[in-house]
Design a protein that fits this description.
This protein has 559 residues and is α/β, with parallel strands linked by helices. The chain has 21 helices and 16 strands. The strands form two sheets. It has an eight-stranded mixed beta sheet with strand order 1-8-7-3-4-5-6-2.
């Protein structure tokens, strides 16, 4: 038996074969081929597989987001079998004896340059199409596994770490648990695991080795332990622990339909964090009161080009419609820092966490922001929508964003397109600047939602992605908690509500603190709803509030 110790970031016990995530390795190799007929057939096979993949994606998009969304993939299908494109690749292989990868790469560059140089805007846009199609064909030629998992059975997925663009493409039906070399409790892998309700362990470093692939493995997300080829005693113990966890979850099921209210009558809303309309099922099945954070950037991460208004509208509409009367708060585009999207063509930054990200990108590139706002307000006619802006530091940013909202609403009114006039507008408080300025910002918006991952990062000057910082990244730090109390006080003085949508919201060790400082809403992963409800219903706030506030704010603070 091989025992590996990491950091548990999502509870649970899982057993299955270990599988290493297959990341694309597409460094171009050029060589002269002797059998050009065989090489041409190799391209044709890849081309046909590409066309089949695009057809499947078109059907999926049509079901989930309508005909306009499917059209993008259908356009790419036509490009993949374009005769001029195909002839150029054939000439490169048959006449110049280039390998298929080199032929596709060169042809893509030639055609993209040709389209980009045209005067017609429609034809210029085809440059991106030919790049996307060629990239897909190249991935097939290189043997890149779509979704990173090539297994017939569910697996314990191992990786160095996973970028947001990679997590969005995973076949989640095949994942029993995550084990990563790096990462942290606030990494996207950890967040995805908690949303899925499966175990996850990060920070195992070089203890996890490629030669372990395929071997039976058990992971314990609560202790951070990984056992490869577990012995009989370990297997028996952990399977019993797993059985008890399942029993506990069944006990929590009895809390469905109950109120999130303390023993002395203090009520708090418990909402959910999601990344796509498909996650709404988890919200409803776990009895979440609403969606406190819909991470809209995952719609962008799931596309090869800027998602158009119709594609976004259908996604937002689906989430709002399925949630019925329950509130859905959608965060506007939040990319940059650790969430990079190639087609945005953002310049390299030495410190992207402090650079052009989130609302800054939207205000600097208003055409992107306007498209999203139109989709959001159109979708508001189908449910109870709230919109919030991320990475706010100043009042002028909020006013400029609100001004764009008004412009979009006026456009829709003139076009006769229905929307909800009473959409709540809020901001994320995830910078010390926003917390310190919360007295003024509260006069501009309907609510605050605190992003505790970034608030901790910026307050403590600790990179949330750097696992080496360990104990220095401390969300329980009194500076973070005092800022949260300041935000609550300023919000309530100005008649608005305040929530937490960061991962800290599910920390049961802080539930009484959040109730004591005045948090009105906690938004957590769907699987955290019922444990949090249990904790709230077991609390007598009047018995703990005074001591907690004295501890937090008093001179003899234990925090």
């Amino acid at each position: 038996m091989i025992s590996i110790q990491g950091k548990g970031v999502s509870n649970g016990v899982a057993s299955g074969p270990l599988y290493f995530y297959q990341r694309a390795t597409t460094t171009l190799r050029r060589y002269t081929v002797e059998d050009t007929e065989s090489e041409w057939q190799r391209f044709k096979d890849a081309q046909q597989k590409c066309i089949e993949q695009l057809g499947e994606l078109a059907e999926k998009a049509r079901k989930e987001a309508g005909d306009d969304a499917a059209m993008l993939f259908e356009t790419h299908q036509l490009m993949a079998e374009d005769l001029d494109y195909e002839d150029a690749i054939q000439a490169s292989i048959m006449e110049e004896a280039n390998n298929a990868e080199a032929a596709v790469t060169d042809t893509a560059a030639t055609f993209a340059d040709m389209f980009a140089s045209m005067d017609d805007a429609y034809m210029q846009a085809r440059a991106a199409d030919v790049k996307d199609v060629s990239s897909r064909i190249l991935n097939i030629l290189y043997g890149v596994v779509q979704g990173g998992i090539d297994s017939d059975v569910p697996v314990i997925l191992a990786a160095d770490d996973l970028a947001p663009s990679e997590t969005i493409q995973l076949d989640k039906t095949k994942i029993l648990a995550f084990v990563t070399e790096g990462g942290s409790s606030s990494s996207h892998t950890a967040i995805l695991a908690r949303t899925m309700g499966i175990p996850a362990i990060v920070g195992v470093g070089d203890q996890i080795k490629k030669e372990y692939e395929g071997r039976p493995t058990i992971v314990d997300g609560s202790t951070g332990q990984v056992y490869v080829d577990p012995d009989e005693d370990t297997t028996t113990y952990l399977m019993e622990k797993r059985r008890k966890l399942i029993e506990y979850q069944q006990m929590l099921e009895e809390l469905k339909g109950k109120e999130n209210i303390t023993l002395d009558g203090h009520e708090i809303r418990v909402y959910c964090n999601i990344g796509s309309p498909e996650d709404v099922h988890s919200v409803l099945s776990n009895d979440g009161g609403g969606v406190g954070l819909f991470r809209s950037e995952f719609l962008y991460l799931n596309c090869d080009d800027y998602p158009d208004e119709e594609y976004q509208f259908e996604a937002y509409k689906q989430a709002l419609s399925e949630m019925g009367n329950r509130e859905v708060i959608i965060r506007t585009l939040d990319i940059g820092a650790d969430k990079q999207i190639e087609y945005f063509d953002l310049p390299h930054e030495e410190n992207p966490a402090l650079g052009n990200r989130a609302l800054r990108i939207c205000l600097n590139r208003p055409e992107i922001f306007r498209t999203q706002l139109r989709a959001l307000f159109r979708a508001s006619a189908y449910g109870h929508l709230g919109i919030m802006f991320p990475m706010v530091t100043s009042v002028w940013e909020v006013r400029e964003a609100k001004k764009m909202c008004e412009q979009v609403k006026n456009e829709l009114k003139e076009e006769g397109i229905p929307y909800d006039e009473h959409v709540q507008i809020g901001i994320m408080v995830e910078t010390p600047a926003a917390a310190v300025m919360s007295d003024r910002l509260a006069k501009e918006v309907d609510f605050f939602s605190c992003g505790t991952n970034d608030l901790t990062q910026y307050t403590l000057a600790c990179d949330r992605q750097n696992n080496d910082l360990g104990r220095f990244f401390d969300p329980h730090h009194p500076a973070v908690l005092r800022l949260l109390k300041m935000v609550c006080d300023n919000a309530h003085k100005n008649g608005i509500w305040v929530g937490i949508c960061g991962e800290l919201g599910a920390d049961l060790d802080l539930t009484e603190t959040f109730l004591s400082i005045g948090i009105d809403e906690l938004s957590v992963s769907p699987r955290s709803v019922l444990p949090l409800r249990k904790k709230i219903r077991e609390t007598t706030l009047s018995e703990v509030k005074e001591a907690i506030l004295e501890d937090l704010m008093g001179e003899g603070s234990q925090f």
